[in-house]
Amino acid sequence: MSAEPIRQKGASLEDEFQRKALASGRIMVNQLAILVKVAQMHNLKNEAVVNSAQALLGTVSSFFEDRKSVSLNLIGEYLFIEDIRIKYNVEDFANFDFLAGEFKKRKLGSLVFNPLVDADQLILFVSTFLTAQTDADDAHHDLALRLGASGISGISTEELKPPRAEDESEKIIDAESAATKAYVRVVLRVKELFEGIPLGEPADIRKLKRAVQSLIDSVYKNEDVLLRLSAIRRSEDMFPRHFANVCVLSLLIGKRIGLSKYHMARLGMAALLHDVGRENRPHDPGEESFEALSEHPRAGVQTILKLKGLNEVAVSAMIVSYEHHRNIDGTGYPKAIETKDLSVYSRIVRIADNYDAVTSSGIYGNEAIPPERALRLMSGRAGSYYDGEFLGKFIIAMGIYPVGSFVMLSDGSLAVVVAPGKGENRPSRPRVAVIGGGASAKYLDLSEKDGGGYRLSIAGTLDPNGCGVNIYRYLF
Fold first, then answer.
1. Average pLDDT in the 108-129 region?
2. How buried is residue 439: exposed, middle or buried, by Cβ count under 10 Å (0-12/13-18/19+)?
3. Are residues 193 and 65 both part of a single domain?
4. Full residue range of the structural domain in which residue 39 is found
5. DSSP result, 355-377
6. pTM over 0.85, yes/no
7. Are 93 and 173 found together in one domain?
8. What digits encode the pLDDT tens for the residues 234-280?
9. Residues 127 and 108 in one domain
10. In angstroms, how far is the first alpha carbon of the chain from the final one?
């Protein structure tokens, strides 16, 4: 019997390795990051350190079934198994970001494992790794000398290489990755903020500001990716995602009304903190009465007053926190003693917050409604609930059929809207993923013409849940 590993019919060894790298690479990065973290906190003989090393060894060893060695590489901002980039989820970002940062500090470009590695060597490596020089020009040289002196035979390293010139396709991929990273970082920073406030731990406002600035950069470079990310609806991290989504959608409006970078930064922070008054309120809508809910704008002002480091952003953030449930016609809550015009930031956040809330289940105790229906309902309230000009800009940014809409095309096929149209066709002729068999999809631009007319049009919208379709698998 052949000793060749069993693989899928028709698949090459390289195909199998790529599948393994994508599946196990993410696990390896998380395990290595955890091992480094627990080794920082505990004695190296501690059970947590030993168990972490054993778990990492199991993952690393799985690669030796058909490889004599396997390398974990840092290239630019991303981690790779050999030349295969490891993709991560929102939950993994903290570990990926931590490990990449630790590699950079030691000028470490590659970590190479071979079959001689064992759990003891992994623990010894991490001990050496943590005691080596950081942020010095010869940091990798110092690490390599220490590893050589330690007698570790199952692990070797290579120095971090300077970034090479990118071609245009790589720049596009990099911009998409940067947008994803910026969005995920905002979600994590919001989680940290909410975990710290009840404990009286001061929030790191500088991190929040940097996260928002990265999001602003991505709004100008790759807003389509941010639209897809903001269209994802999941119960986990629902509230942190709501904050991030409102920030993204507010910045899209700010971009279209021509706000300067200075005002975009203030708008972004105000949007991110708009609902901070809900941090001490029940997150189960069934437990939250309207009376209690209507007090969160005031609570938000009080919370923002306690945050240190906001400086000039504090005033606009407090105003938005207080006003984001008030309407243009003076209705809404909290009730005002006298009617006055809402601030520009509040008018923008009012639109972004309401859209994200009504298209999500549970933000304010509502059942989610389809994106295109939400825009129709909001359009009917232009001038009373919402600033008509800003709402018009928002609809152009989102399209009549926003990203995440489930539609039937004129030929009877089903599709998911994955991006707005381009140019003058942006609002009405989006780009779609036409659903085929299984998880396959064909991507089409509905602005394309065949002869004198458009090849396909949208005939109507459908409920994806009623059709048993998971739209999120088609967004990326």
1. 95
2. exposed
3. no
4. 13-159
5. HHHHTSSSSSSPPP--HHHHHHH
6. no
7. no
8. 776 788 899 999 999 999 999 999 999 899 999 999 999 998 887 65
9. yes
10. 41
